[in-house]
Amino acid sequence: MHWKDTFEFTFYMVDTFALPFAIIVYVVERRKERQADEEELYQRLSDEYMTFLKLVLDNADLQLLHRAGAPRTLTDEQLERRSALFGILVSIFESAYILVYEVRMPKQTRRLWSSWEDYMREWCRNDDFRAALPELLEGEDPDFQAHIRRIAAATQKRRGDSAALTA
Q1: How far apart are CA 122 and CA 49, in angstroms?
Q2: 68 φψ region: left (φ > 0), alpha (ψ -120 to 50), beta (else)
Q3: Which of 54, 131, 36, 147 is nearest to 93 (CA)?
């Protein structure tokens, strides 16, 4: 009977200590994996955005980073390239929105998302981009459309307020 008592005692020890420990280790590892997946996703999206910025530099004649000032005249070919680049940008923004944005975000996800909202605000300050948005957003995710339209409207309002203050 001694071996039976030992077996029973060992079983209770496993049940009492090892099983909860294994569950805790599993939960911690899953959380680490999830965070690594989020960071990898963010990195892939950032790489896409950096590739886009290289395209912007390669097409400097379009003056996409131009904020305001004297109006420029672009040829039909330049207008087409600008439209294509804006389309790529909206596609990247929509991907970021769909893959990263959540209504209730954990702190880490909120940090990752904030940089994307900053990029969107920055581009919405560009009059040409903002003017092209209605056409660019056709067929895009409705929630994304609403989100970037809010950003564009807020940016335009702030620009209008700033212009009124400096006038």
Answers
A1: 13
A2: beta
A3: 147
pTM of the predicted structure, to 2 decimals: 0.76
DSSP H helical ranges for the chain: 2-13, 19-58, 76-100, 107-124, 127-136, 142-166
Number of residues in the chain: 167
- Span of 23-27, 70-74, 144-148, 163-167 with lowest mean pLDDT: 163-167
Q: Is 60 helix (H, G, I), strand (E, B) or coil?
A: helix
Tokens of 137: 């957003």
Q: Is 31 exposed, middle or buried (0-12, 13-18, 19+ CB in 10 A)?
A: exposed
pLDDT digits (tens, 9 = 90+) for 140-167: 999 999 999 999 999 887 766 554 434 4
